[in-house]
Amino acid sequence: MKLAKTYSYLKRDLDIIEEALAEVIQADHPVLREASTQLLKAGGKRIRPVFVLLSGKLGNDFQIEKIKTVAISLELIHMATLVHDDVIDDAELRRGKPTIKKQYGNRVAMYTGDYILARALENITTLRNANIHRTLSKTLVEVSLGEIEQIKDKFNWDQNLRTYLRRIKRKTALLIATSCKLGAITAGLSEKEINYLYQYGYNIGMSYQIIDDILDFTSSSEKLGKPAGNDLIQGNITLPVLLGMKDQTFSQLLHQTFTDANSHVTEKDMTQLITALKQTDAIDLSYKVSDMYLNKAIDNLNKLPDNKSKQTLESIAKIIGKRTS
Amino acid sequence: MHTTRSEIQQLKILINEKLHQTYLKKYIQKPMLDEDKLLILYTIVNNSPISSDKKERYIITTMLVQIALDTHELVPDKYDLNENSSNTVQGQLYVLAGDYYSGLYYLLLSEIEDFSFIQTLASAIKEINELKMKNYYLEVESVEEFIYNKNYIDTLLIIRVADALNQKELMHLTKEWFLSNTLIHEIERLDDGAASLFENYIRSTNADISSIKDYCNQLLSRQIEKLKTNTLEISNQHNVLKKHIMATLKREFE
């Protein structure tokens, strides 16, 4: 089953959010407007708004206006991060389409990211709930620190599993956990329930990123919209590589390929590395780590009262564990 | 009782503490803290009837936003990732440092639950980026419009804070003072043949450098007179600011 199908019944709410998102990024400057709209139209799974909606629907005080405000801001923050990430990575394509950086240059990409982030904060401050802002602002700072850590750890072959897990927590899991938490706060769930949902989101986020990191090696360039092994080419050492390095043959080949971090890694080099990685147990072990997080996510979900949203959150967890793109 | 100077010194220490991040410090230059902006911001905020804790937060967070925006201006137009040099890492970290400082301002204001000030700063950032686009694409009819637009970009954050705190008198002075500062700085650069604010403008409009210099000098003469008058007219409670501006003018022109 496809991810989007599990929450297809949320279409009406998601359409409301989509419409509001398009409205909120209507900048006065035509290029700024075009760049933001283009980014929005490129799609994406809108997974953060989905988590806000589903968590909100677990509460007794679900108000679409408030939920919409939270969902929009979280998606805008995610979008702003993507625009700036593409500047950092010098990325030309995102979801198979030219990035803002590629189309308009670094300067415009920086202005667009800053503009979108400002819109996100302008929008969410219409809600005067201290818990929302404390949570979201802490997350924003942590996400930035995570990105800084990622640069710091590039081509650092000595990093350990803990470093990797902390990095993906900041990079991906926190914003998903925060989406669940803010949806729950907005809909008036209890402290305990808010925490269960936060833990659910955190664990789902960890699993989601681990699977992403696995797919970087096991999926095709067509499906990924970027070359296979791209993370490694960029110097990002992810779970499969960390686990694969325990295998001597792979480890040797890896070090040979990257002896000089400035050397150009060819497509042939990467194909060889991926083949060698697949011959180790790293991919299987990575899936096991992902499953461990998924199980924790479901454990937290089980502590919540039964309803349709809870079932959907459970289905999402299962689909994430099996996704191939 | 603290003097203005020592309070400003203290604020500088606090801002630098907030900006401190070990890895960033290793790779990127220490963010520039515009002391003139800090002084006028201090004067504006200090003149408003809010608690001293709030005053401190307002000044620190506004300066963090200014530094975040300035840091993003340092992001290079191009990277060569294949080089993986310290220049590349530095460029990448300018992106992240700016984002980090932005997150900090939101965090510091969330801690005191000041949602309307978060909104004030966020709206200013939004407007500034709209204006930056206009100047980037040189959507101006004249060098005069270009300069005024640049001055607006430079001062908008402080103007919005002054507006939120109902300090209209100082809003006007901010614009006049920073316009003079920009002109002084740019004339120096044009004289030295250094990279100037007008570089893109000159390149794409084929404008004559000497005529731009003449125009800037004329505008500066007018500005100086306006600034002197405005400075003398502001209330005596802003004596430190008054003295500072007059001393700057004296240093530059006498």
UniProtKB/TrEMBL annotation, chain A:
The keyword Metal-binding applies. Its cofactor is Mg(2+). CDD domains: Trans_IPPS_HT. SUPFAM superfamilies: Terpenoid synthases (SSF48576). The keyword ATP-binding does not apply. It comes from the Bacteria. Keywords: Magnesium, Metal-binding, Transferase. Pfam families: polyprenyl_synt. NCBIfam families: GerC3_HepT. Belongs to the FPP/GGPP synthase family. This is Heptaprenyl diphosphate synthase component II. It comes from Ornithinibacillus salinisoli. The gene is hepT.
Automatic annotation (TrEMBL), chain B:
InterPro entries: HEPPP_synth_su1. It holds the Pfam family HEPPP_synt_1. This is Heptaprenyl diphosphate synthase component 1. The lineage of its organism: Bacteria, Bacillati, Bacillota, Bacilli, Bacillales.
